[in-house]
Every structure is written in C-alpha cells, then in structure tokens.
C-alpha cells in the first residue's frame, strides 16, 4: 500500500470513530428520556385503554404541572388525548387527578392550530407546539420567535381561542 492510501484509510477510520462516539453519546444522553417516554406510553395504554399511540409529548409548566400527553386510539377506534400527571422526580402521580382523557373529536388539532397561528401572526416563526394544561384548560402551547424575541402563547384546544397573556422570554444575549 502506498503512503497516500494509508493516510486516506486512517482518515476514514478516524471519521468513523468520531461518528460512532457522537452516536453513542447521543444514545446515552437520551436513554433516560426515552425510558420515561416508553413508560408513559405503557401507562396510557393500561390506564386509558389506548390500543394505538401516534404521539407522545412531555409538558412542563412549573413544578406542579408536569404531564406526558399521549395521543392515540382507544379500543373503539376513536382518537383521544391522554394527560398523565407526573411528580418532579419523574414518577407518575397517583390518585383520581393523575389521568385525564379528552376525545380528539371536537377539538382543534395540532395542524389546524398551526394554520390558525400562522394566519394570526404571519411574521412569527413557530418553534414548538405542545398540548398541555394551562389556567385549568386543555391548551396548545406555541413557543415561537418573532424578530429577536421568543414567546409562549396558549390557545384553547376546544375552540382555538387565546388563553391568558403572551409570555415573553427575556433576551439572554
């Protein structure tokens, strides 16, 4: 083998090692989150009798407002949202207020909320849309950027109306 071939093979080997290390780091850092998500899906299928899961989102808005929101189908084939309340330490909350369900029918779905938001604030760039509970209502939380500032805005899942005030995040620059 020529010296040039050896250098090329060594460079390829170094790149493969670096890519493998980056992948391993990512998988290890996401392991707890993935396990928490899988446990929430299992809990939703058991306690809310979901037979199929299409979406799982974690909602955190303060210490006493931590939920996994699972979207899926029940045994009757109807789509619904399931809110599973969690404690600060990541363990499921127990009791009668620990699991909430809301049928998808009659609500504003994520895609429709995105369209409504873009029509309302065309210059804003939505960064994330999550279902949650805010001001004792089922809501869509939209995290968005407008200019150099970032905001949270909440909309009712029932009719898409704004809930509460827009929360402006401080500029951390």
Account of the 3D structure:
It contains 2 helices and 8 strands; from the N terminus they run H-E-E-E-E-H-E-E-E-E. It has 173 residues and is an alpha+beta fold. A hairpin with a 5-residue loop joins strand 7 and strand 8 (162-168). The longest helix is centred in the first third of the chain and has 45 residues, at 3-47.
Quick summary:
By secondary structure, the protein is an alpha+beta fold. The chain has helices at 3-47, 110-120, and strands at 50-60, 66-74, 79-86, 99-103, 125-134, 137-146, 149-156, 162-168.
Helices and strands in order, then pairings?
Elements: H1 3-47, E1 50-60, E2 66-74, E3 79-86, E4 99-103, H2 110-120, E5 125-134, E6 137-146, E7 149-156, E8 162-168
């Amino acid at each position: 083998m020529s010296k040039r071939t050896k250098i090329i093979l060594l460079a390829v080997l170094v790149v493969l090692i670096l890519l493998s290390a980056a992948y391993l780091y990512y998988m290890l850092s996401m392991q707890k989150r993935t396990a928490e998500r899988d446990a929430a899906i299992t809990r939703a299928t058991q306690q809310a009798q979901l037979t199929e899961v299409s979406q799982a989102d974690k909602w955190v808005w303060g210490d006493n407002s931590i939920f996994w929101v699972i979207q899926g189908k029940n045994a009757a084939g109807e789509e619904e949202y399931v809110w599973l309340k969690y404690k600060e330490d990541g363990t499921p909350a127990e009791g009668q207020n620990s699991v909430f369900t809301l049928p998808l029918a009659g609500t504003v779905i994520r895609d429709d909320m995105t369209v409504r938001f873009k029509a309302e604030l065309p210059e804003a760039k939505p960064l994330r849309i999550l279902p949650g509970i805010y001001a004792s209502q089922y809501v869509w939380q939209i995290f968005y950027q407008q200019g150099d500032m970032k905001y949270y805005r909440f909309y009712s899942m029932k009719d898409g109306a704004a809930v509460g005030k827009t929360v402006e995040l401080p500029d951390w620059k």
